Amino acid sequence: MSDTERGTRRIVSHPILSAPDRETIAFTWKGEPLTAQRGECISSALFANGVHVFGHHHKDHSPQGIFCANGQCAQCMVVADGLAVKACMETVRPGMDVAPLDSLPELPETPHDGVFDDIEERAVECLIIGGGPAGLAAAIELGKLGVEVLLVDDKDRLGGKLVLQTHKFFGSVDEVHAGTRGIDIATLLAQEVAQHPSVECWPGTNAVAVYSDRKVGLVRDGRDYVLVRPQTLLIAAGAREKSLTFRGNTLPGVYGAGAFQTLVNRDLVRPAKRLFIVGGGNVGLIAGYHALQAGIEVAGLVEALSECGGYKVHKDKLVRMGVPIHNRHTVLSANGDAHVESVTIAAIDDGWEVIPGTEKSFACDTVLVAVGLDSCSEFYHKARTFGMKTFSAGDAAEIAEASAAIFSGKIQGHKIAGSLGHEVPDIPEAWSRIEEILKSKPGTVEPEHRPEKSDGVSVVFHCEQEIPCNPCTSVCPQQAISTGDDIRGRPTFIGDELGVACNGCTKCVTICPGLAITLVDYRKDEDYPTISLAHEFPKDDIQAGDVVNVLDTEGAPLGQAEIAKVASGKKMDRTLLLRIKAPRAIATRIAGIQVQKPEAAEPMARYVSRMTDDTVVCRCERVTAGEIRDLIHQGMRDVNEIKTVTRTGMGACGAKTCGSLVDFLFRQEGVPLDERTPNVPRPLFVEVPLGVFSGLHKER
């Protein structure tokens, strides 16, 4: 799409989400009038209007666009009403004049009549940094015990990454709302926090520093600076996405999966027509599924390992929809001039080297990078250095699923209250066991078991891997589904042992987070039974009488079958129930229907190669891997020395993006990390205008 094509990117129909009724406001981009929705960020408004290039780097004039959409980098900087701001964090205001940032920004003049105020200070029993699942769960427990809490989060809505998750959650129904969609869990937790008067929440607030006098600096709404002295500090700031070096990795159209989910699921903007995913963990797999739900084609997913690291049920959902997974492959380049036009991948051998002749290119306009997460733990380490009573929970402590983060926050809330001298019940021994289960990695994969009987109703479980999940056992009215003694066990139907038969209610089918349960009903026709399966795509896209391609768990085609009925209802939680008539020979093998047309995932006739080998490591300062390698070859082992020579890590993000990539280069060049001196972190974790510290209030 060209930079001037407008008005085609709003999502007005979605199987899970409803478009909010928000006021339309006017703003300008490069002097041209555009419209936005009140309350949305500049980046989302620009994407909705077809604008992907937000500016050009002052060093080499390379195009700049969105990357993290989380305030962690500075690639989306624009000039708004004369001030350089991050487009992903700044809200559009009526009449706002937005322009590209094509050079180093000029400092605005300070008004002579500015008013300098004293800096506000306050004390609190517990300060929680992060309003995601862990922070909210901790605040709830502390609120129950009457502990004075101040919870801060840099977004304008509480919930963290939960507000981006439209899928149903795994884990335990009783403990962490398993079987409920992430967006709804965010609402439930925020509502419960609001019930406790001792808990105060400050959304739109950045924690910017921890000081040696044991105070924490906060910036509210980008302008008001407050110093807080907490008796205890809980870090629940979540995680940031890891970056990856490959040719063309800084082109607009290359960005993190979290940024994509922000645009699609939070702001209901369709940022791509066809995308390609790098990384087969849960984040990448889920983002691919969310793309399909938003009407975006997924050309494929590349994973360097022989198997995807995410839950197999997530991978299975993608392949059943028609998305190919390229295991033992790597990305070589994102290709294009001002924006991504294609991606090139290749197979790798056991030594992780590219196998010549295996290169393939796929047409796409977006490349999603989902290669893991790093804990946002800098606040925790700095506070501990200064002797503060500090705790951590969720991804800030250990990368795991959101269900584990909720329970982690719950436990830490009890520990904090006890450390403050509040009367707290003993933490049950079972809690540690539950936390361990929820944090556990995917277990073994066993062959799918298909029931042999061909009368009555058969329950077929297409989940082949041990993961913590029990919604199906909780909703079965016959109590005839069991995972054994541990919710990580694979579910089985135990009706024969109990002397009961499946009544075909389909509750287990519609609640399953992995869409991995089907019912095969032989009662009306033994030769052409009816298969009931869950479907989370627009109801208007499929009708009774349609003939569809049916696939097995691994996405292999089984043939065609007719849709007999499409059912929906409030109790199904925005999930459609498809009833399909199919031959008995394939009935128990059917796990889903093909959603995406095969041609969306076909490679191009010839692969695209890039001539340059200058892969950018430091996005902010445009420093290449070759420049850093040369200095390592010269004997430099101090990252701070490399920073002095090249400015690597001196940009706006403060090495959040490139720090781990520099370490990777050391390892790649055979230098153990214990032989290198790490980068000295900045005292401030987030960029702050100097006027904020002085208390200078300026009309904006």
Describe the protein's architecture and organization.
The chain has 700 residues and is of the alpha/beta class. Helices cover 22% and strands 24% of the residues. The protein contains 18 helices and 35 strands. The strands form nine sheets. Strands 8, 9, 10, 11, 12, 13 and 24 form a seven-stranded mixed beta sheet that branches. The two termini are 33 Å apart. The relative contact order is 0.12.
Structural class: alpha/beta
Second CATH tier, the architecture of the largest domain:
3-Layer(bba) Sandwich
Using DSSP, what is the number of strands? 35
CATH fold naming of the largest domain: FAD/NAD(P)-binding domain
How would you name the CATH homologous superfamily of the largest domain? Answer: FAD/NAD(P)-binding domain
Mean pLDDT: 91
Question: What is the overall silhouette?
Answer: globular
| Tally of separate helices | 18
How would you name the oligomeric state of the polypeptide chains in this document? single chain
Spatial gap, N to C terminus: 33 Å
What is the number of domains? 4
